[in-house]
């Protein structure tokens, strides 16, 4: 069957398009990149050909973390191409991009969360190609597809503790780009950590409906500071998170980054003054998980058809423990966070997860009760 015709048929049968997860920073005006227009690096290597399909680079967060891992694999001899495919508003182009990559001989197609639904029909059409979806919890995996899921609720629990401990007004916020199960898992863990540390601390939430609208995110945060006395903000919003840091600067509040060390990213970037409000960042080691996964592939290990869950016990989530964190967060609070992390790793503390709720209504009731 003609591949372009196949892509049209596949697209027409899609009834569910999940938002690209968490922390993908895409700009609504970004043109969808075809493989030969990739903005990421490409390397000719002999170990195999990997296509990393992300929404957009430059988010100083989720996508860039993945690219850091791909750079390690490039240096180790893998042929890696990074393709910026846009967010789910451009999902009608995704299958064409995957088919072009397959035509060009890419043996491994890697994509986040919502891309998994677009991978699934291709797995039976191209059994020789392997598909890796990350930041996604799946149980319907064929033999040539695997998924990596991160226990972001565990890392968010720890920064939730810190937010509660650092808030003078006993009011904190967790603001997201878009809502989906993975993002809701961030929120659940954060609320759990806040309430365990200080039951009297309130948690407000907001979603700006985009991974790339920092202006709206700033407005939401300013409203929360004015109306709810929020003085510690946690962003799980990709490129929109930049507006949260702006609001924290303007209001004299603290901020928490996500997915990578955003204090370091801003310190080394063009707006170093923003680093001065970022106490820490909740880490999701996307890049490290890529390196570990493809090392297993290289070693011939049986990794396909499985979902791997990585959390605190695997050092795949956590928080930044740098000098700025140590200088500004009191020792007793830092010790409490470290003790909680040790208990989670030992199985002595179970953090609430979005995936444990019986229904969406139960999750919403949990979040509403924290306000």
Would you kindly provide a written description of the structure presented here, covering whatever features stand out?
With 371 residues, the protein is an alpha/beta fold. It folds into two domains: 175 residues, 3-Layer(aba) Sandwich (Rossmann fold); 186 residues, Response regulator (Rossmann fold), CATH 3.40.50.2300. Helices cover 42% and strands 18% of the residues. The protein has 13 helices and twelve strands. The protein has a six-stranded parallel β-sheet, with helices on both faces. The protein has a six-stranded mixed β-sheet with strand order 7-6-8-9-10-12, sandwiched between helices. Helix 9 links the parallel strand 9 and strand 10. It starts with a helix and ends with a helix.
The CATH first-level class of the largest domain comes to: Alpha Beta
Share of residues in strands: 15-25%
Number of strands: 12
The residue-averaged pLDDT reads: 89
Shape: globular
Rg over C-alpha atoms, rounded to the nearest angstrom: 20 Å
Helicity level: 40-55%
pLDDT < 50 stretches: 1-41
Domains, number: 2
What string, H for helix and E for strand, traces the elements in order? HEHEHEHEEHEHEHEHEHEHEEHHH
For the record, give the distance between the C-alpha atoms at the N and C termini, rounded to a whole number.
Answer: 54 Å
Total of helices: 13
Question: Which helices and strands, and how do they pair?
Answer:
Blueprint: H1 3-13, E1 49-54, H2 62-75, E2 79-84, H3 94-103, E3 108-112, H4 116-125, E4 130-134, E5 145-150, H5 152-166, E6 171-176, H6 181-197, E7 202-207, H7 214-228, E8 232-236, H8 241-251, E9 254-259, H9 262-267, E10 278-284, H10 286-298, E11 307-310, E12 317-319, H11 323-328, H12 331-346, H13 360-369
Parallel strand pairs: 1-2, 1-3, 3-4, 4-5, 5-11, 6-7, 6-8, 8-9, 9-10
Antiparallel strand pairs: 10-12
Helix pairs in contact: 2-10, 5-6, 5-12, 7-8
């Amino acid at each position: 069957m003609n591949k372009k015709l196949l892509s049209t048929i596949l697209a027409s049968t899609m009834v569910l398009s999940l938002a690209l997860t968490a922390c993908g920073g895409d700009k609504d005006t970004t043109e969808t990149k075809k493989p030969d227009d990739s903005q990421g690096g490409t390397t000719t290597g002999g170990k195999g050909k990997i296509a990393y399909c992300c929404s957009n680079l430059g988010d100083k967060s989720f996508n860039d973390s993945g690219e850091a891992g791909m750079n390690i694999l490039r240096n180790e001899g893998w042929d890696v191409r990074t393709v910026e495919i846009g967010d789910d508003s451009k999902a009608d182009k995704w299958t064409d991009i995957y088919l072009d990559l397959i035509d060009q001989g890419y043996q491994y197609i890697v994509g986040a969360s919502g891309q998994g639904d677009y991978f699934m029909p291709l797995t039976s059409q191209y059994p020789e190609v392997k598909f890796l979806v990350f930041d996604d919890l799946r149980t319907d995996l064929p033999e040539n597809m695997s998924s990596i899921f991160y226990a972001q609720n565990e890392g968010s629990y720890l920064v939730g503790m810190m937010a509660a401990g650092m808030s003078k007004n006993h009011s904190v916020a967790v603001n997201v780009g878009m809502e989906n199960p993975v993002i809701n898992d961030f929120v659940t863990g954060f609320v759990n950590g806040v309430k365990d540390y200080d039951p009297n601390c309130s948690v407000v939430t907001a979603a700006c409906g985009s991974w790339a609208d920092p202006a709206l995110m700033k407005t939401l945060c300013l409203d929360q500071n004015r109306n709810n006395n929020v003085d510690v903000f946690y962003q799980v919003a990709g490129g929109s998170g930049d507006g949260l840091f702006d609001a924290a600067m303007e209001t004299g509040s603290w901020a928490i980054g996500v997915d990578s060390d955003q204090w370091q990213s801003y310190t080394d970037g063009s707006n170093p003054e923003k680093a001065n409000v970022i106490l820490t960042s909740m880490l999701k080691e996307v890049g490290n998980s890529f390196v570990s996964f493809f090392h297993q592939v290289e070693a011939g290990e049986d990794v396909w058809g499985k979902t791997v869950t990585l959390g605190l016990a695997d050092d795949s989530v956590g928080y930044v423990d740098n000098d700025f964190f140590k200088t500004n967060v009191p020792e007793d609070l830092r010790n409490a966070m470290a003790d909680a992390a040790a208990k989670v790793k030992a199985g002595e503390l179970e953090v609430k997860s979005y995936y444990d709720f019986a229904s969406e209504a139960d999750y919403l009731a949990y979040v509403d009760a924290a306000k």
